[in-house]
TrEMBL record:
Belongs to the cation diffusion facilitator (CDF) transporter (TC 2.A.4) family. NCBIfam families: CDF (TIGR01297). Residues 214-289 form the Cation efflux protein cytoplasmic domain. It is a multi-pass membrane protein. This is Protein p34.
Amino acid sequence: MSQGEMEQGLKIAAGSILVGVVVLGLKIVAYLWTGSVALYSDAVESVINVVAAVAALIAVWYSARPADADHPYGHHKAEYFSAVLEGALIVLAAVAIFREAYGAYLTPRSIQAPLEGLLVNGLASAINAGWCWVLISRGRKLRSPALVADGKHLLSDVVSSGGVVFGVGLAALTGWSILDPALAALVAVNILWSGWGLIRESTAGLMDAAVTPKEHAAIQGVISANADGALEAHDLRTRHAGKATFIDLHLVVPGAMTVDASHAICDRIEAALKDAIHGAIVTIHVEPEGKAKHHGIPVLAPGGR
C-alpha cells in the first residue's frame, strides 16, 4: 500500500468518526423530541457506528504498518478484526433494541412532535447515505475491508432509518402505538442480519479464503500470457489478507534452462500479476520439466512448448 493510499484511508476513517458523531447527535434529538422507541433504536445503532468508526481508524492505521520480524507477512489482517468487532457490536445493539421494543410493547407510549423528530432523523439518514457511498466506493478502490464493512453497516442503517421514519409517521397519523415497538424490532432484525454478514465475510478473510472464481481465472490468464519460455504452471494458490492478495505457484521450466533465464520469466510473471491485481504479493517456485503435472496452467505465449 502506497503512502498516498494509506493517508486516504486514514482520512476517510477519521471522517467516519466525525460523521458518526454528528448523525448520533441528530438522532438523539429526534428521539428526545418524539419519545419513539423506533427512533431510539436508530440512535442506538448510531452509537455502534461511532464505535465501529474508531475501530476502523485504528485498524486502517495498524494494517498499513510494514512487515517486521514478528510479522514477516505484514499486518494486513488487522482490518478483519475491526470488521468482526463491528459485527459483534451490531449484535449487542440488536439485543438492546429488542429489550427496549419489548418494554414499549408492554407499556405503549404516545409519540410527541413527530414532524420535527422525523425531519431531524431524515437529515441524519441523508448524511449517512452520502457517507456510506464514500466509504464503500473508496474502500473498494483502496481494498480496505474495514472501510467497506463500515460503509455496508451504514447502508443498512440508511435502509432501516427510512423504514423507521415511514412507520413512526404512520403511527403518529393513525394512533396505532403498536407500530412503534414493532418497527424497532424490525430494525433489530435488520441490523442482526447486517452483523452476521460482516462477521461471516471477515471470518473468511481471517481463515485465508481464496480469491473469487473470477479473480482466480484472471490470475490464471495473466500467468499463461506472461510465461513465455516456461512449460507450465501448476499448484496455484491464493488468499486475501486485507489489501494484500497472496499468490503462490509452481513454474515448470526446461531442465537445461539457466537460473538467470528462469528468474527472468518469474520476474515477468510477477510484474504482470502486480499490474493486474492491486496489492499482489507473488511467490514462484521453479521446477524442472520432470515435475510437470500436465494439468496446470498452459503457456500461451510463443516458445512455451
